[in-house]
Give the backbone structure.
Amino acid sequence: MTGQQHPGEQHPTPEFPSQDQPHPGWTGPMDPPPDHGEESYRGSGRLDGRKAVITGGDSGIGRAVALAFAREGADVLFTHLDDEKDDAAETARLVEEAGRRAVPVSCDVREEENCRALIDRAVAEFGRIDVLVNNAAYQMSQPDGIEAISTEQFDRVMRTNLYGMFWLCKLALPHIPEGGSIINSTSVQAYKPSPHLLDYATTKGAIVTFTQGLAQMVIDKGVRVNAVAPGPVWTPLIPATMPDTKKFGQQAPIGRPAQPAEMAPAYVFLASQDASYITAEIVNATGGTPLP
């Protein structure tokens, strides 16, 4: 649906069918299917000619951002894991359908050399990087407490959510021209951590601090750094990492999870020249959960 409507009734509300997927999860089996803006997002040239890099662009928020960026006029290089090739192909189709270049790249951001190769590829393809979106993330619910979080899991969460972001920012900055921007994906978990997502929430809090610090560090280069803090969003990560999806998102005051399409406009705004006076900012998109 389009047009003015009650926000709590705009998209499906819990209860959802019980569903479970192995990690990393895929879009196709999800019920209800996620909305990435395929039928609703209308571009207006706000990113004409821009070159964007998006990590985790195969599905969920990353796909919605790739679609929106393309319809706003940007070419998009995005990452996916090897197991996500089918989802990545669909994202590429949507970008190309918008008349823009799509460059899907299999990349695990947990390794510095992979991040270096990714930035080298982006520069080879585009010549520069106007927008870097650090969106790739890993979580795994552990309702049995800190004892259940293995060192292997903790390391994977840290390296995916923090190390990858750090390396990509460091490596991309020499190729981001004046007026460019970096947008990081944090979360409501940064401010209101769920005990069963302790390690994930820890990284999201660190992303807030990193974003605010880096923004001050690089503004003299003419580069803005901001973040988006989503609340619960209906993406493949949910059935792949949560023990029960039936009531997912019900805790938000709006009464439902966001669809990925509802996150994309925040990223478009922060990437555009409309946000020229906005840096070191966290855009909260939590469905009504108050944050500091």
Notes: The domain at 45-285 is CATH 3.40.50.720 (Rossmann fold).
